[in-house]
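Retro notes, structure queue

What went well: the backlog is down to a handful. What didn't: a couple of records were mislabeled last round, so from now on we paste the full input next to the output in the thread. Example, using Type-4 ice-structuring protein LS-12 from Characodon lateralis:
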Amino acid sequence: MKLFGIAALLVLALTHGSFAQDGAEQMSQYLQNIKAKINQDFQEFVGHQELKDQAESFLEDRQTDLEPLAAKFQDQLQDLKAVAANMEDKIKPLTAKVKEQVNPLIYSLHEKMEAMLQTLAKHTKTNRK
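Corresponding output:
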């Protein structure tokens, strides 16, 4: 009786194993079919002419929307360039005037510094002797 139970259990285990192997192969084949179907559907979706037309239409619409903004921006940039040129024209004479007034001061300061250095050099020579 024990031997019969062991034999029956062995037969059931072998049967279950073969079913499990068949099930794994079926599951693997099923997953491969799903993967192939997803790839095929994706390729059809991407290659669909209507999708391409919609994308091109969208890009054309955005381009027509942005063209007036670009023109407005370019006009403002031209205005800004004109203002900058105007400011430069006004600042150049001012800097020239400041330079005319500061140069004599710098020259005078330079002369005073040289006189002070000469005086300092004379005092240093007399103190060393």
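Agreed that this is the format going forward. Reviewer comment attached to the example: The CA atoms of residues 24 and 57 lie 48 Å apart.
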